């Protein structure tokens, strides 16, 4: 994958992470007011570590048809106390994802078909994980 494509992919995933901050700014809500769901064991068949918490799912249909069939891109942001390397190992072991070189301490993991993109970044005493599942997964 070219540097430009990696940069665009990382930029898109960073935008997902900033949705929480933007939603709080627009609505005047605090972080505790934003929708946070209980983390399940998987998101679109992508396993989550047992200790995943503060899950924030986002879904944006690409078309009216996609909205009707629930066949749309979706993303999930969550926190885990695992180190970034432990999270990377978890996903490489469970999904055979390819790790890209870190950019600004963020590591991009990609599936062979580019339908799964996961960004792992350090967050206080653990990691923030951003998952993007593309259409038709």
UniProtKB/TrEMBL annotation:
Annotated keywords: Signal
Signal peptide: 1-23
Name listed for the protein in its UniProt record: Uncharacterized protein
């Amino acid at each position: 994958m070219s540097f430009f494509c990696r940069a665009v992919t990382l930029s898109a995933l960073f935008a997902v992470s900033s949705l929480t901050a933007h939603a709080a700014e627009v609505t005047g809500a605090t972080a505790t007011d934003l929708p946070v769901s209980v983390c399940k064991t998987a998101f679109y068949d992508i396993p989550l570590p047992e200790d995943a918490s503060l899950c924030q799912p986002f879904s944006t249909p690409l078309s009216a048809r996609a909205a009707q069939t629930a066949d749309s891109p979706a993303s999930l942001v969550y926190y885990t106390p695992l180190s970034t390397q432990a999270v990377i190992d978890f996903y490489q072991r469970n999904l055979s994802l390819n790790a890209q070189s870190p950019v600004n301490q963020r590591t991009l993991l990609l599936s062979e078909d580019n339908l799964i993109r996961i960004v792992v970044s350090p967050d206080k005493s653990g990691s923030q994980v951003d998952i993007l599942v593309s259409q038709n997964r």
